[in-house]
Amino acid sequence: MMSPEKFRKSYDIDVQVNSEVVSIDRREKAIVVKNTITGETLTEAYDVLVLAPGATPTRPKGIEGASLPHVFTIRNVIDVVNLKRHLDAGEIQDVAVIGGGLIGVEVAENLRESGKHVTLIEATNQILAPFDFDMAQILQKEMLDHGVDVIVDDGVKRITPESIVLASGKEVRAGAVILAIGIAPETDLARAAGLEIGETGGIKVDRNYRTNDKSIYAVGDAIQTFNRLTHRPSRLALAGPAQRQARAAADAMYGMQHNHNGVIGSCAIRVFGLNAAATGLNERMAVAAGIPFDFVYVIPADKVVLMPGSAPVHFKLLFEIPTGRILGAQAIGEGNVDKRIDVIAAMIAMNGTVEHLKELELCYSPVFGTAKDVVNQAALVALNIIYGRFRQVPVTTVRKLVEEGACIVDVREKDEYEKGHITGSVNIPLSELRHRVNEIPREQAVYLYCRSGQRSYNAIMALQGRGFNNLHNISGSFLGLSFYEYYADLTRGREKIVTAYCFD
């Protein structure tokens, strides 16, 4: 980004490139530096030492062929240059990306945009772990729609010069392979110097990012931090926290104490035509932490629907039961989902509840949002759940309901129903509901849905006013269900539970 000479002139800081620190002598307060071009070494003294070695991409020894010359990892610009050189030299068209995390998805997208045939392979049951399974299905569909073959729940058995053999026995052609299966903190120097390593494998630091040696600090991907929501040790390889850690460490060197409140974990990614962002805990993390929670899944418009470019936002909000404390959120859509997740991240940092979120005053203009923003709407639904005003079931349970022959009512208009609906559902439009109340049974559970959940909620309120107490709203409704079911239907060849999907 900048030459050592320019950096020295601008900031009076001496930058030594092509130099590798090979050891730390804590007693003498010195480091041994090796010139990577000449091989010569020299000793540099320090008063204060800062370790920021980052993390190293994982290259598993257990996978046969992981060290073949056409297998790459991506950590820096040089790695990207080497990959591009290999692709161009061999005129390679088939590329496999192993690992469906943020880096893996971004690499797969870029390769596909450059015209390559790309297969993304993920050993777990979904891509992008910060998102819950139901939300990840939206992004998996987006990748399929843009020509990326997405394979989940299938690990890599071995890599050959021409292909990848999966645990299932399936073979994927690949003239180039990118390993994006995770990173490990670079702690070799710290371990050799006798610095304490935390239970997560990162360098252990205090609130001011000091190690157990008071003259040595550590920041960034190499350290162990802690999660402010679970209060457990964790690691977080993101640029934002690393920047703040560096500033805090510098402050501490000059006697300015820092109050380390822990990390939340906020991230964002663009996947072809969709933007996605997440913060805080998802369902898996909340369960692992033993925090009682519930969630709402709403799909409002990101701006006034009459405005050009208005599009749905799939927004999921997790909150603690019974306190209503905000635990996390995920958002996916064509618009500014990062703005909504940033609001939630700020609320989490302030120990906010859904009651606070309901009353949050945000900017409004029809070109930017709605008078009742996405986050406000999610808070209102969450409060309805907390106070028991209505009950809901997630889209993840609908297939079982269909198989069991549950009573499912579609309250959309007739023309919407005819374009596609849940198999076995009965169409009673909201506009006709009050005249057809006698068609809804009172002696069994009834599940209502519409396009996004608003009209089915209104129907439930109207029916509860008439004495019904057996009603459940399908959270996410038909739009959310279509996205949830699509990827598995397509890749497994299973029978659909909808007559036709709805994606807009």
What does this structure look like?
The structure is a single chain. The protein is of the alpha/beta class. It has 4 domains: 1-46, no CATH class; 71-184, FAD/NAD(P)-binding domain (3-Layer(bba) Sandwich); 267-386, 3-Layer(bba) Sandwich (FAD/NAD(P)-binding domain); 392-492, Rhodanese-like domain (Oxidized Rhodanese, domain 1). Helices cover 29% and strands 24% of the residues. It contains 14 helices and 28 strands. The strands form 8 sheets. It has a 5-stranded parallel sheet, with helices on one face. Strands 19-20-23-22-21 form a 5-stranded antiparallel sheet, with helices on both faces. It has a 5-stranded parallel sheet with strand order 24-28-27-25-26. Strand 22 and strand 23 (326-333) form a beta hairpin. Helix 4 packs across helix 14 (477-492). The longest helix is centred in the last third of the chain and has 16 residues, at 477-492. It is globular and about 90 Å long.
- CATH homologous superfamily label of the largest domain: FAD/NAD(P)-binding domain
What is the chains' assembly state?
single chain
Total E-strand runs: 28
Query: What is the average per-residue confidence, as pLDDT, rounded to a whole number?
Result: 95
Number of H- or I-type helical stretches: 14
Class by helix and strand content?
alpha/beta
Rg on CA atoms, Å = 26 Å
Indicate the overall shape.
Answer: globular
CATH class type of the largest domain: Alpha Beta
CATH topology of the largest domain: FAD/NAD(P)-binding domain
- Tally of domains: 4
Low-confidence parts: none
- Euclidean distance between termini CA atoms: 42 Å
Largest sheet: 5 strands, parallel
Major β-sheet strand ordering? 6-13-7-8-9
- Beta-strand percent range: 15-25%
